[in-house]
Amino acid sequence: MAEQPWGQSYPVHPQQQSYGQPWQPVHTSQSAMRASHTDRDRTVDVLKAAYAEGRLSREEYGQRFDAAYKAQTYGQLAQLVADLPAGPMVAPFGAAAAALPPAYGPMPMPLPMPVPARPVNGMAIAALALGVLSLPTLGAAGLGAVITGHIAKAQIRARGDEGAAPATIGLVLGWLSLGGWVLLFVLAGFGALN
Q: Residue ranges per domain, the chain?
């Protein structure tokens, strides 16, 4: 018997037949297997849940809690939770998970955390807008599209923002507009010479 600080003791007998999980008996060879710290922690978790649900009184919880940390085998741990709705440990080595009832099957995998969407670079949008505005008029908006496009490309590389495509389209349209202006001045200059 494990002696408790408040006077009462809780019996722990490893040689008695016990249960590893409520749905699966632990054979004598498995009940004599040494328990790990993790097994003891799982047992204490079951005891905490039972106490929180009102299945155990404060005194009984305290006795079983102390006995769980003094237990050295699966059988001793299983005795502490044999009358509770969940067992203290996973199935022993060699037991197939398929043999468990569906309610106690493997835990579902947690869903991956959603990755937040990267923001679209504002300069890339400005470059695209200025590039589109510069086409019909061949206006000075082309120079603005080229400047904002290069700034956007640098910011996208530095910050990892989205918007490489709009920045590139704005740059191309801006350079086409500037090329149109250069061509217009060259043709006007040749026309004035003739």
A: 2-93, 122-193
- DSSP letter for 103, please: G
pLDDT per position as a tens digit, 18-69: 444 443 444 556 777 888 888 888 888 888 888 888 888 999 999 989 998 8
Phi, psi of 24 (to 5 degrees): -140, 115
- CA distance linking residue 172 with residue 179, whole number of Å: 10
The tens digit of pLDDT for each residue in 106-149 reads 566 677 777 778 888 889 999 999 888 887 766 678 888 999 99
Closest CA to 56 of 32, 31, 82: 82
Strands (E), the chain: 2-3, 9-10, 18-21, 24-26
137: which 2 tokens? Answer: 């008029």
**Residue pair 171/124 in contact by the 8 Å Cβ criterion:** no
For residues 35 and 83, give the distance between their C-alpha atoms in angstroms, rounded to a whole number.
Answer: 19
CA torsion sign, 162 to 164 to 166 to 167? positive
d(CA 44, CA 5): 18
